[in-house]
Amino acid sequence: MKLKRYYFLAAAIILTISACSSKKNNIPVVGFVDAFEDATISQAKNGFIEALKANGYSEEKGNIKIKYNNAQGSIPTLSQIINQLVAERVDLLATSTTLATVAAIQKTKTIPIFQMVSPTPERMKVAGANGKGPANLFGTMEDLNYIDTSFAIIPKLVKPKGSQLVVGMIYNQSEPQSADALQRIQGLAAKLGVKIIALPLNSSADAQLVTQGLLGKGIDAFFANPDNTVFAAFETILKNCNNKNVPIFTSEAGLVQRGAVAAFGADIYQWGYQSGLQAAQYLKTHKTDGLKLEMVKLRKRVYNPAVAKHFNIHIPADFEAVK
User: Fold this and answer.
1) What single string gives the DSSP state of each residue in 225-255?
2) What is the pTM of this model?
3) 145-266+301-321: CATH homologous superfamily?
């Protein structure tokens, strides 16, 4: 146990020395925090870094240090990562997905936080009495208005097996945006004459069992709502739905590349890029004047040609094929 403590202390000292070295050389340090590992979500980091490069900041040039950390879905690890970055006094924090953003908000009120793949402060439950988020919160956010368009394409493209179209969903009760999305979709479905069957999924480890349970209820289509647990378990969900010949629709363009039929939603890469532009502006001046949380500017209607062909679904002309 003493040996383990020694190694932990040594590692902490090395990290601190590294951070101090960057500060002495006046090299800005960006602490980038991903809440979990996911092929779609990782596109946000790529976009963020590309935006910095487009504005002259890159590790290749040696004029910036990016400390990338991934909590792998562990809340304790996420907390430790942000504590360490705050202790190192990084110039800014970049947070991807809601869990990382909320954790950062809880740990610092002074270091600028540039969020991405995260909803509005109200939906994260971090808004103040004035309805706004913390003063050090910037970057790009999303509300649920686009969900309506995403879901509404299903009854236009899928024929029900019975007298009523039945759409299945999985949601995480502990994620505010997931629960809010479900409630919103249930209201929309009632207007469209669609029946919703939803089951809770609190861990991606349970995805196989929960998805099979949902498919056993005779659903005509599956809707993958904006939920980090659904993202992480998507390949499991996809495999089981394909086995039962049930098409998946979603609000996230990245999931279409991974096997969903179609989506109307934010491009995750561009989401990160938009936040990166703000971060670059801050690095140039070290002032937050003119910066504020922005809504996602770019949303796409996209479809997967191979998957649409497999399910014999005819996609409207205004949808773009994913590459």
Assistant:
1) -S-HHHHHTHHHHHHHHHHTT--EEES-HHH
2) 0.79
3) Response regulator (3.40.50.2300)
